[in-house]
Amino acid sequence: MPSKHIEPPGEEPCRRCKENTFIIVVRSEPLCRDCFIRYVHTKVIKRMESFRVRNADPNRQRKILLPVSFGVSSIPLLNIMDHHLKTQKSKTGRTGFALTILFVDTLGVEKSPANPNLLIQLEERFPDHHYAKVHLEDVFRTEMDDSLLELMPYAEVSKVLPLSEQLAVLINSLTSATARADVISMLKTRLIVQQAQFLGCEGILWGDSTTRLAEKSLTETAKGRGFSLPWQIADGESPYGITFNYPMKDVLKKELVSYVELVQPPLTSLVHREPTNTQISTGSKNTTIDDLMKHYFESVEANFPSIVSNVVRTIGKLEAPYSSSSDSHCKLCKMPVVGGQFGIHGWGGDQEDGLAAPVGNVGQGLCYGCSRSMPQVGR
Amino acid sequence: MPPSPCVLCKTNRAVILRPKDHSKLCKPCFLSVFETEIHHTITSNHLFQRGEKIAIGASGGKDSTVLASVLKTLNGRYDYGVELVLLSIDEGIKGYRDDSLETVKRNAKQYDMPLTILGYDELYGWTMDQVVEQVGKKGNCTYCGVFRRQALDRGAARLGVRHVVTGHNADDVAETVLMNLLRGDLPRLSRTTSIVTSTPSAISTDPNSHTNIKRSKPLKYAYEKEIVLYAHHKNLDYFSTECIYSPEAFRGSARALIKNLERVRPSAILDVVRSGEDMAKLVLSSDEGCEGACASTIPAAEEEVDGCGSVNGRSVGGEMASMEQRLAQNEVVAEQDLEVEMTINHGSGQRHDEHDSGTTLRKPGKKRGGKEKRGQAFLPKKTQKQVMGQCKKCGYLSSQEICKACVLLEGLNKSRPKNGIELGYEADTHRIANGVNDLQMQVD
Description:
Chain A is of the alpha/beta class.
């Protein structure tokens, strides 16, 4: 299915090269295929400054992790990085970094998980990199402490269960679709971070597009995690103790959808398309806050792409409070909770104190947002 | 299925599914929980002081009516020792405001509170009908918006009241948080999440000055749906108005999103409010690069949450589109290696338009975010670098020599026909009533 904004080749020439006829209008500029591909690559490579060849120690290869979900962002990211590394190699004889590709299998956990066979195809197409695959349940195996187990019902019993069952127990203990989606994404992030460290990577390249980051910003706001936003979309040292990079930050999702189709050879067969609902029902028990925001920003992006980028720019202006390593971190999302204000109580909007029967939830080391997803913890 | 008992008293039959957390309550328990929570908000934030005279900004709508009723109840029950009065603003729109003012008059009797109705004509010498007669339908909303912002403060000063409470609820605040994220307006986000706003006291030493009026919103954490339920179950007498949003405008967009979020997860409204409060702490108080001149110059009283956005009728659909256009232009400039950013963008004719949109040039080469930032120690909040002064004419807090209201008034007065203004071209008045439909709830 060709995406909407690919125009039929018209008479008008490309605004940049002035030679070819335009094929797509990008931010009100008609571009030909080549100029569009170059446009996307430039936006991404610009954010990879710190990984230039001249910054690399010739005796020690820098390694970075690129997690792929087979979505419309991570596959183009890999394609661009692959191309970038080849260019570096041809120009200087070496590369600024090496990539490790990681796929987290969520079979049995997520609604429509990507087919793991896609990983084989990916490796065939981009053979120069290391590939690794883990299943989400491995998060229980590789955790350094029992913090996850403590969040589960019957922690003592759960501890001895097989990993897959531990995961099932945890997910099934959650009471809403939003909570499940929320916890699954937290676990994924934790697992990816663990793997990056385990595989000796100094940082992670996240595929999030502008649109995805705006979506994430408002999703987290709606989940009560506004406090952690400065850490959620910023490049640099993350609270997980590893560097996060968002090279796709300046590219819109709709541009990536076009990129997948227009790049030569196309990436279409490598991208896992989730069944898209044009309408989402807020009445449905399966609808999540994440779904809602995704849908919302798809519509904003269609008509107001600059507003989408402005949201990300705005969030980027929030100043992360200085957090020392002694600060307490949330047991689930791992974000530093400055001032140690865990749980959903103890703030102005908490009115339970005024009631005769206060609810005994003290948060148990969960931040406000995570307490909303796991209200049973600490009960 | 047997009727479920109330989860609180465990005896009465539950008849109310509480919007906030979906708990099942009986009517007396719901009313009592609702009141207790407002009491908690008031006491934990130390909103009131014994002996204080407090004006309730009353529009006759649900929020301000519930606020008046609950405050009356709580003041009696917990002996706050405050004196409550009702203050209504009459914009002077014939055939439109009358019904809601009648409601406020009945409320005054029902709650035994003195009521003052102040008209734009008394405050400014002009009713909105007259303004419209003068400037036409187009652009009159600018006048109304600017006048309204000061009206409650001016009214309070006349009554010798230093504290005005308004009926802004949790939905309004949550909506404003999302709206300001979409508009990229962090300074306003930061201020509107605060439960108390007041103009800096240092500005004026005159106790009767209207630049030092405290504003607070005791219903800040109350869900709109619960306010409606409370009004219903208490048989409160209020005037319902419809507020139609322009579907494309920021507030309309944010409002729709908030309602959807509430449907998916009822706690989401409160969660957005919480996020807003937390983010407010992360907003750099001074606007680097523009020395506070671009975004922070809004007197507290001018940036209230505005319960029912009145974008209707003026910037229909154009607000987001015009911001999009400006941002896109900025992006083009940014491509040419200048880092340019949009701070706030107020579409023309939009209500918060008293200061111009700012385009901030940043020093090129300075990278934000990332490592550098985290290296810094957490800076305690600096006081706002506002270049605020007093209007030379009326004394109102203003970043300019003459405040916007006085500027507009000057223009109006200059061209005032000597024979005065005739009211009442039937058709016109009617059209205005539609266009300014939303003015009604402004004090709300």
